[in-house]
Structures are given as C-alpha cells and as structure tokens.
Design a protein that fits this description.
The chain has about 180 residues and is of the alpha+beta class. It has one domain: Heat Shock Protein 90. The chain has six helices and six strands. Strands 3-4-2-1-5-6 form a six-stranded mixed beta sheet. Strand 3 and strand 4 form a beta hairpin. Helix 1 packs antiparallel against helix 3, helix 1 packs parallel to helix 4 and helix 4 runs antiparallel to helix 6. The structure holds adenosine-5'-triphosphate (ATP) and magnesium ion. Adenosine-5'-triphosphate binds next to helix 1 and helix 3. The site of adenosine-5'-triphosphate (ATP) has 18 residues, from helix 1 and helix 3.
C-alpha cells in the first residue's frame, strides 16, 4: 500500500502521543531549492532506550524479540532509504524523542505530501489534550499552527467538536497553500 507523507507522519505523531508527551512539535520543510522534504517530530514523552531505538528502526535485524514491535518507524525509515534521504532517531529515556526523516523531493518514488490538515486533525482527535506545534516551512515562507493559540481563542470549547476539527483542518491547509505561493 502506498502511503502519502502525511500518513507516515501521523504514525510518528501517534507514537509521540502514545509516549505520554505533554508537548509535541512537528516540523515539515518543503524545499524546492534544496530538493528535499524534511519531516521532524519532537516530543517530551517517555523516550526509548538505545536498544529499543535499534529494535524499532530495524525490526528484521533483531532476533528473538520478547516483545512485539510494530512497523510505523521502520516504514518511515524504509521510505527515506528508497528516496535518497536520511533517517535518524535521538531518544532519551524519561526525556523524549526526536525523529528526523528526509527524502529527495523529486525522487520518482517520493509519495505525495497528502492532506496535512486532515492528518493533524486526526492527531488532535486521538488526544484531545495534545499540545502540538506544527511548522510548515518553504523556501520563502513559514506557517505555524499551535493548539495553544487555538485553545486560547476557543475559551474552553473542546478542540474535538466536529466543527472545530473541520475548521482546524481547513485553516492548516489554507496556511500551507499560502506558504507555498511563489514556490516553483
Ligand atoms: N516517540 C516515541 N517515544 C517513545 N517510544 C516510542 C516512540 N516512537 C516509537 N516508540 C516505541 O517504538 C514502538 C514501535 O513503534 P512503531 O510506530 O514503529 O510501531 P507501531 O506499529 O506503531 O507499534 P505500536 O502500536 O506499539 O506503536 C512503540 O510501540 C513504542 O514503544
Ligand atoms: Mg506506532
């Protein structure tokens, strides 16, 4: 199954949510000039041991695992390898995790970006209390969405009200369209 980049990012974001993070930062850099798409998820959740990082990034190289390990991280890593990119996880137990993935933008196997607004909507739906900052950067512009700012404006209304979720999705996608204006 061909996953777009947004779906790959959602997998990584869901891991951060699952790790009980009180703060998650997603940074996407979409650069024509440098011919790259950089994706970074930083959280302050439970983190992973070195051994665990090895296990999740290369599940097939690990023999006799005592614990079932999923594939979300491994798929993202595989994608970066397929698309002339790079992949890196820095994690500290009890402090948090940074996952960095990058692909060559014009690679023939590079998946489409997908619907970033919808992806963030899903993440918020999965964890109503999430504290998320999302940066989308092009060669000339930067768009920033923060749940903090939205909460302040909503004055106590839940983020997971259907109209609010749809609004968030559209707000983000409009911000991205504006940030992309002027890009080749
Ligand atoms: N940001 C993170 N913080 C802490 N642990 C993480 C993080 N990301 C991944 N992990 C650990 O790596 C495991 C595998 O994650 P991965 O996304 O590759 O697989 P998965 O199919 O999503 O499995 P799971 O359902 O367990 O998340 C997670 O279950 C978790 O234990
Ligand atoms: Mg996962």
């Amino acid at each position: 199954m061909m996953q777009d980049l947004a779906m790959h990012m959602l997998e990584i974001l869901m891991n951060s949510i699952g790790a009980k993070s009180s703060k998650v930062v997603l940074r996407v850099r979409d650069s024509v000039r440098d011919n790259v798409i950089d994706m970074e998820v930083e959280d302050n959740g439970g983190g992973m041991s070195e051994e665990m990082v090895k296990k999740v990034t290369d599940p097939f190289t690990t023999s006799r695992t005592t614990r079932k390990v999923g594939m979300g991280v491994a798929f993202m890593k595989g994608l970066t390898e397929q698309c002339d990119g790079s992949f890196d996880i820095v994690s500290t137990l009890g402090e948090g995790t940074v996952v960095k993935a990058s692909i060559r933008r014009d690679h023939i196997d590079a998946p489409p970006m997908g619907d970033l607004g919808e992806m963030i909507m899903y993440a918020i739906q999965a964890d109503e209390t999430i504290n998320l900052d999302f940066y989308y950067t092009t060669d000339t512009e930067q768009f920033l969405f923060t749940t903090d700012e939205i909460r302040e404006q909503l004055e106590g209304v839940s983020l997971v009200e259907p109209e609010i979720l749809i609004w968030i999705k559209e707000y983000i996608n409009e911000g991205i369209v504006h940030a992309k204006e002027g890009m080749v």
